[in-house]
User: What shape does this take?
Amino acid sequence: MKKLNRFDIFIYSLIVANIIAMVLESHQSINIKFNRFFKYFEIISILIFSLEYLYRVYISYKENKWKGIKNYIFSFFGIIDLISILPFYLKQFVLLDGRFFRILRLFRLTRIFKLGRGSKSLKLFIKALSSVKHELYFTLFLSILTILFSASAIYFLEHDAQPDVFSSITASVWWATVSLATVGYGDVIPITVWGKVFASVISLVGIGVVAIPTGIISASFVEEIYTSRNKK
Assistant: This one.
């Protein structure tokens, strides 16, 4: 990791403080007692993060004009910087349903990724992902196709025996997803003989579906590390 200047240390400290505040805020007793503090701390933090975002846009323009701005805005950390402040402004200027806003507040967690801005390892990992993005797109397509096939098959095999559980192919997607991911929560299970046989087979297939992208990412990451060390 590169040497941090005072500005970076301040921003990183603020990010850590925000994460701690978010955790403490989830405790009702603490939130009731320090609600006003959390509110003002969030406003001040958003103001600072917003100024940081504008500052990085300015630096990007200074270094490479409009192309620099474009590269920053659409970069990984540029998107993270924007997402970490956007929900606050959406709440102020757009009328949102309370439940939707609670979901948006989850994006505050993205601030933790800002801690890795100066991390060489994280940059290598992002570069590794970028170099195999087409392969990952294919494995994502393959995974979606396998989930849809599994959901369709288990629907036809189990619908008559469990019409409430496997009421449609859409409802069967949950079972297909957790089975292929080899999680297997057990909240939805097949009870027919052929349903159990199919579930056994699809669970084995799921190991391969999970292993393919894992292997691709691992190989690419190792290759980037090797290339980086050889450049020194």
